[in-house]
């Protein structure tokens, strides 16, 4: 059930506590914040990062944690409520007399984004004051899910393209080496032939040499193009600047 006192205000009562009255008379304001979210979303980590200014090792919250944080003349009482299934059933008992509600989401836990959305919808239904902010958060969560799926597919496509470019490059290098060896072989053969070959043989050999030279230049150009393309793809993937067409 709900705690007997929440943030200096007695739950279920219209009266203010003595500490709250004293604070208001002398210019000190108390703000009550409830922090909820799925289990392992990082609520306790956020709470103690705010309290201590540093990350601490935490354990799953059973029930709740509560800390007071002071900033200038404002005293924040922050309730970190457990996010397990059983704990979620009593969240609604803490909403009364609160000034703000924080819903913590682990953006890296894409498998449970939809579960977080469902909890947000339920929270909207039970706490009317949070409707606008929660609607915006739900849209952001849906957008995050869509973007994460898109990026995952895009990474797969870019990796496949890089693998294909690498295979094409390797093939060009192999064919270039084969052409080089064949050219060397023919040149060696041409040196050991008769110094006065018949005219027909001489013309035929020269034609073959010219053709091999042309093939060699053609493959060298292909290798240069493939090397340039591969470098461009690797650099874009490494820097994360390669975008899908039309984006």
From TrEMBL:
Coiled coil: 134-189
Nucleotide-binding as UniProt keyword: yes
Gene3D superfamilies the UniProt entry points to: P-loop containing nucleotide triphosphate hydrolases (3.40.50.300)
InterPro entries membership: P-loop_NTPase, Small_GTP-bd, Small_GTPase_ARF, Small_GTPase_ARF/SAR
Keywords: Coiled coil, GTP-binding, Magnesium, Metal-binding, Nucleotide-binding
Residues reported to bind Mg(2+): 44, 61
MF annotations from Gene Ontology: GTP binding; GTPase activity; metal ion binding
Pfam family, one: Arf
Binding positions for GTP per the UniProt entry: 37-44, 83
CDD domains xrefs: Arf_Arl
Biological processes per GO annotation: establishment of cell polarity
KW Calcium (keyword) present: no
Similarity section: Belongs to the small GTPase superfamily. Arf family.
Name this protein carries in UniProt: ADP-ribosylation factor
Species whose genome carries this gene: Alexandrium catenella (Red tide dinoflagellate)
